[in-house]
C-alpha cells in the first residue's frame, strides 16, 4: 500500500512538471496575412481596415496586412504583387482593374479578392459574375454605364453647358467603354465631349493646359486610381478655372469637388472584408460570385457651388443623398 502511495505521488509530480511543458509546446495560432495592393495609402486601405474591424479582425493582433503602393505607376504592379506572392499571403486584395490583372497573372493558387472593379467581364478578368472561376472573386462597382448618368447630372447642374472635358486614363481598361457611353449620350444632351488623357502624375500640367485651350464649360472626371490619388490637384484646378465638375466617390466632394455620384468606398470594402472572412474560414473563390454594388450616392458640395457662382436646380438638390454646406 505504501508503494502504491509513493507511485501515485511520483506520477502526480511528473504530471505537474510536464504540464507546463506540454502547454508551451502547443503551436501558436497562425495570424492570417493579407496582401493589399493599390496606388496610394488613404481611403481605400482605411475603408478595408474598417470592414475588417466590423468583422472582429484587428490589424496587428488577429490579422496582418502587407501593404504595397504603386504610387500611380502601373508598371510597378507586377513587381509589387510578386513580393506579396513570395511572402505567401493568405489572400490578395488588388484595388482596381490594373492591379487585378497583375494579380491574376502572378498567381493561380492564392485567393484573389478584387476591389472596385468597374467591369470584370468586359475587362477579361472573369467569364461571368456568377461563376468567376479560378482563384478570383471580388466586388464590382458599376462601370461604363455610370458615366452616362454622371454626364446627365452634370448637364442638369449646368443647363447652359455645351462643351465638356472628360479627364480619363487610356491605360484604364474600363475607360474606353466609359468614353463610348459618353459619346453615345452626349448628342441627346446637346454637349460635345473632349477627351483629355492622364496616364501618370507628370501628365497633369499638359492635361490642364489642354482643357484651358478647349475652352470647355464643365469637367467630367472618370474614376481612376491615378486621378483619385491626385484628386486635390484636380479639384483645385477646377476651382481656379471656375469649372463645375462631376466625379465618382464622395471623397471627391469632401475634397471640394462640386458633385460626386457613385458607389460608397466604405460599402465596397466592407463587402471585400466579408469575402476575405469567408475565404479565411475555408470558402473557395470559385464558389463565391463577384458581388456588385448597386446602391449609388449623389453628394453635392453646396459651398463649392456658391464659390463657382452657380445656382443649382432645386430638383437636383432634392435628388442628393447628402449636401455639403
Description:
With 325 residues, this protein is of the alpha/beta class. The protein is 44% helix and 19% strand. Strand 6, helix 6 and strand 7 form a beta-alpha-beta unit. It is elongated and about 60 Å long. The termini are far apart. The N terminus is likely disordered.
Tell me briefly what this model is.
This protein is α/β, with parallel strands linked by helices.
Shape, principal axes of CA atoms: elongated
* Helix content bin: 40-55%
Question: What is the percentage of strand-forming residues?
Answer: 15-25%
Number of strands: 13
Distance between the termini: 90 Å
CATH topology of the largest domain: Rossmann fold
Number of helices: 13
Q: What is the name of the CATH superfamily of the largest domain? A: Response regulator
Summing up helix and strand content along with how strands pair, one would put the structural category as alpha/beta
The level-1 CATH class of the largest domain:
Alpha Beta
Low-confidence segments, given as residue ranges, are 1-10
- Total separate domains: 2
Give me the side-by-side strand order of the main sheet.
7-6-8-9-10-12-13
C-alpha-based Rg, rounded: 26 Å
- Note the run of SSEs as H and E: HEHEHEHEEHEHEHEHHEHEHEEHHE
**Major beta-sheet overview:** 7 strands, mixed
Q: Under the CATH scheme, which architecture of the largest domain would be assigned?
A: 3-Layer(aba) Sandwich
Mean of residue pLDDT values:
90
Amino acid at each position: 500500500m505504501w508503494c502504491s502511495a509513493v507511485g501515485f505521488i511520483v506520477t502526480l509530480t511528473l504530471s505537474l512538471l510536464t504540464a507546463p511543458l506540454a502547454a508551451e509546446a502547443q503551436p501558436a495560432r497562425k495570424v492570417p496575412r493579407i496582401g493589399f495592393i493599390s496606388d496610394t495609402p488613404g481611403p481605400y486601405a482605411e475603408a478595408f481596415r474598417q470592414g475588417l474591424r466590423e468583422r472582429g479582425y484587428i490589424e496587428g493582433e488577429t490579422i496582418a496586412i502587407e501593404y504595397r503602393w504603386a504610387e500611380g505607376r502601373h508598371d510597378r504592379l507586377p513587381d509589387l504583387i510578386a513580393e506579396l506572392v513570395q511572402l505567401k499571403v493568405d489572400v490578395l486584395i488588388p484595388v482596381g482593374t490594373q492591379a487585378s490583372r497583375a494579380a491574376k497573372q502572378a498567381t493561380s493558387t492564392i485567393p484573389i479578392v478584387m476591389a472596385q472593379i468597374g467591369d470584370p467581364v468586359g475587362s477579361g478578368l472573369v467569364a461571368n459574375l456568377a461563376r468567376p472561376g479560378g482563384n478570383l472573386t471580388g466586388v464590382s462597382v458599376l462601370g461604363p454605364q455610370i458615366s452616362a448618368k454622371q454626364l446627365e447630372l452634370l448637364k442638369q447642374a449646368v443647363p447652359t453647358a455645351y462643351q465638356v472635358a472628360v479627364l480619363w486614363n487610356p491605360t484604364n481598361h474600363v475607360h474606353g467603354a466609359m468614353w463610348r457611353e459618353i459619346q453615345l449620350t452626349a448628342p441627346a444632351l446637346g454637349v460635345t465631349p473632349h477627351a483629355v488623357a492622364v496616364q501618370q502624375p507628370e501628365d497633369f500640367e499638359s492635361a490642364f493646359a489642354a482643357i484651358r485651350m478647349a475652352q470647355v464649360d464643365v469637367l467630367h472626371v472618370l474614376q481612376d486610381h491615378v486621378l483619385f490619388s491626385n484628386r486635390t490637384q484636380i479639384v483645385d484646378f477646377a476651382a481656379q478655372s471656375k469649372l463645375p465638375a462631376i466625379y465618382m466617390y464622395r471623397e471627391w466632394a469632401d475634397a471640394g469637388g462640386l458633385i460626386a455620384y457613385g458607389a460608397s468606398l466604405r460599402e465596397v470594402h466592407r463587402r471585400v472584408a466579408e469575402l476575405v472572412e469567408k475565404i479565411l474560414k475555408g470558402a473557395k473563390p470559385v464558389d463565391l460570385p463577384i458581388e456588385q454594388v448597386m446602391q449609388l450616392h449623389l453628394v453635392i458640395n453646396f459651398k463649392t457651388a456658391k464659390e463657382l457662382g452657380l445656382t443649382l436646380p432645386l430638383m437636383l438638390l432634392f435628388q442628393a443623398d447628402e449636401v455639403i454646406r
